[in-house]
Amino acid sequence: MIKIQHENVITDSTSQTKPDDYLKQSSDLYASNPPTIIPLVGISPESEIIYEVNLSVPKEKATEYVNWLMQFTKNQCQTTPGFTLCNVFSQPKPAGLHWLSEEGNSKCYFTIQYHIRSHEYLKDYLKYEQAKVSVIEIDRFQYNIISRRVLRNLFSTSS
Q1: Which of 11, 34, 71, 107 is least surrounded by Cβ atoms within 10 Å, i.e. has the fewest?
Q2: How many CB atoms neighbour CB 21 within 10 A?
């Protein structure tokens, strides 16, 4: 657990020094460990899912990131099997995540939701493509992945 930050040196509760790019390393590690889906009885594993990524981007890179993301997500939906739609949201700084306090007011926060035909398509994407994309993105935009999750669409209702 991260406890104190002093001039680019982070220590944990055991007083072990961590490198100043600890959050970046954590983000790299998080990006390489895919989330899992718990199967639900009576719900088809072939039902649509939403793969959601929440991240923070330095404010000075946010406009460039959003402009890049518009083209990237369009390309993902056109070329990645199973990807059908992508929604990108801005959001306020998430509350309740104590380690985000280290970011101060220096970041912009985004949620990216990829609509995918089934979990099998997501598994293939995570296995074959996602890791190389994450490394390029993280290096270029210096963002931190805050959380990822997979949502299964149980049903939809409209008026």
Answers
A1: 71
A2: 13
